[in-house]
Amino acid sequence: MLPYKSLIQVDRNASVSLHIQVCNMFISLITSGTLQPADILPGSRVLAQLIGINRNTVKLAYEELVSQGWAESVERKGVFVLSKLPVLSRPAVPEPGKNNPHHEAFTWTNKFENAWITKGPEKEMLTIDGGFPDVRLTPVDLLMREYRSLSRRLYGKNYLKYGSSKGSENLRTAICSYLSHTRGLSVPVENIVITKGSQMGIYLATQLLINPGDSVAVGLSNYVLADDTFRYAGANLVRIPVDTYGMDIDHLETILQYRSIKAVYIIPHHHYPTTVTMSTERRLKLLKLATEYRFAIIEDDYDFDFHYNNKPYLPLASIDHNQNVIYIGSVTKTFAPALRIGFMTGPSAFVNAAAALRELIDKQGDTVLEEAFAVLFNNGEMERYFRKSLKIYRQRRNLLCQILQSDFSNDITFNVPEGGLAVWANFNEQIDLVKLAEDAAKKRLQIDDGSFYKNESYAVNGIRMGFASLDENETIKALELLKKVLH
């Protein structure tokens, strides 16, 4: 007989009843091959004594096994593992000291072997991130109040049912009004699809635009997850230099004369990672080339709302009269990254196709959350939050830049960004950023090691240093720690 005393152990404090625990353990023994078809199970009296439970509990467990089809009861003989079950072999036990190569249980294609996997912030560590908002400033309490209120109201119960794959109509209407008010972008409500952040918008646009072998023009320095999305679709990346005026459109024009480009991915406002803004002249020329060569422009405008020195440039989508631009924005990049709300606009048929594709991978978003955001847009709370945070983030930017200039002039070069939530910091080539990040972690400071910003053509020794998520005291403390690590 098997050593049931050690194989079947019950937890009297568990929420699962004892007879179900015993039943599940027998199922595990059967599926692992320890018990084979037609094997006899110990008598209820014997098992009860072995594992220290009531005999009636064992009987209930056996009845459950029989009812689920794992066992059969034979009169005057006992309970047996069902004889009709297929024979299952026990997993092989690796021999000590021998190399046992891992064998996959099934074949599949791993297109993500070298993909970047985002890690969350370390607990109880100061973090100089890549440029995120300070969630302590956001009106999350108001948002959650509206969320709870909507879910309790009688008409709000409808938001708990399936809705449009384009997203909440109220939120789409609110975003249309907001885009018109802030960016001069007039978009019909039906031409907006709500997404789970800008990354989903990039994915949807890519899947509709790109066929394997197509070429996509991207910045020499670029957002790595956009690069990975294009590669996943089978695209060839064509790197275009980026300088202080944004992507070099003259260089793009030269390439277009001998190579077909299906799409251009661009972050004209606060380019990622370098934070530069594309000039008006280059924007107009890019639109002209898009019309002439019939390529799509994927405009990623992830943090338009934060601009400090003057009014922000209008998006390309606002001055596009030929419908070449697919415009992608994010609410949560400027509110709280974990609350995934973004949007995408474009030609009507394209947006309809994007909504159909979105339905295949993610039937719809969180309708109640979208409705709650719509309330905050409509009652002016979002606009008040942007005004308040803009003032605070300007002060934090100035403080970070002041300290970098005074205390790190021999180690870091940078330009004061006109907008966004981060400074692009170029470190002295003699500084090993990977080691710097490791040493900083020992002092409870989390900082990028620069690997996220590198690609096959771009390997500058730099990182984005976010200033928005730390208050003044935290910024001073974080930079003091960084200075100690450097010196």
Secondary-structure map with pairings?
Elements: H1 4-7, H2 18-31, H3 44-51, H4 55-68, E1 71-74, E2 78-81, E3 126-128, H5 140-152, H6 169-183, E4 192-195, H7 198-209, E5 215-219, H8 224-232, E6 236-240, E7 242-243, E8 246-247, H9 249-256, E9 263-266, H10 280-293, E10 296-301, E11 325-330, E12 342-345, H11 348-361, H12 367-378, H13 381-407, E13 412-413, E14 422-427, H14 433-442, E15 445-447, E16 462-466, H15 472-486
Parallel strand pairs: 3-15, 5-6, 5-9, 9-10, 10-11
Antiparallel strand pairs: 1-2, 4-12, 7-8, 11-12, 13-14, 14-16
Concise structural overview:
The protein has 487 residues and is an alpha/beta fold. The protein is built from 15 helices and 16 strands.
How does this structure look, described?
- By secondary structure, this protein is of the alpha/beta class.
- The chain has three domains: 78 residues, Winged helix-like DNA-binding domain superfamily/Winged helix DNA-binding domain (Arc Repressor Mutant, subunit A, Orthogonal Bundle), CATH 1.10.10; 112 residues, Alpha-Beta Complex (Aspartate Aminotransferase, domain 1), CATH 3.90.1150; 243 residues, Type I PLP-dependent aspartate aminotransferase-like (Major domain) (Aspartate Aminotransferase, domain 2, 3-Layer(aba) Sandwich), CATH 3.40.640.10.
- The protein is 39% helix and 13% strand.
- The protein has 15 helices and 16 strands.
- The strands form five sheets. Strands 4-12-11-10-9-5-6 form a seven-stranded mixed sheet, with helices on both faces. It has a three-stranded antiparallel sheet with strand order 13-14-16, with helices on one face. A two-stranded antiparallel ribbon has the order 1-2.
- Strand 9, helix 10 and strand 10 form a beta-alpha-beta unit.
- It is elongated.
